[in-house]
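As a warm-up, study this chain.
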Amino acid sequence: MITAHISSEKIHSTSPEAFDLFEKSRFGEKVRDRIEYSWVEALFLNIKKKLTLNHKSKEISFDKAIQIAKKQDKRIETKLTLFENLREKGYVVKTALKFGADFRIYKKGTQPGQDHALWLAYAVRESEPHTWHDFAAKNRVAHSTKKNLLIGIVDDENDVLYYEISWLKP
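Now compare it with the structure written out below.
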């Protein structure tokens, strides 16, 4: 079991198990002498009983971790649902903040940084309003990075419906 620590806005572990899981399944990012996790990665691994979360030197529950995460990202639960769905389908899922998206999605076995992502993905709640302007902006970002856009619509039962959008030159 990996023990991870929440400090400021970072979640990290120095355990050998964290490095093993990184090499095997690409969870986290190697940063010097530790593995740093995004919130969705840490929460997903906590759900799967592969990682415990410590905050202020105490182990915390999943519910407490979600409370802390929501202070930094109000959409964390929607993103977590999409992340979990894609990981369980075998994809490697990494954050895509620098691309202005929620996630970069890679084929199973792919090493991010050495291969290109298949999609830039956005998690949206079915019940939340979205405009054509929102859609166009997301599509433009995906196109400018030479990726297709994947929209994961999460419904009230946490089922996910996917739409893939690509550019077409007639």
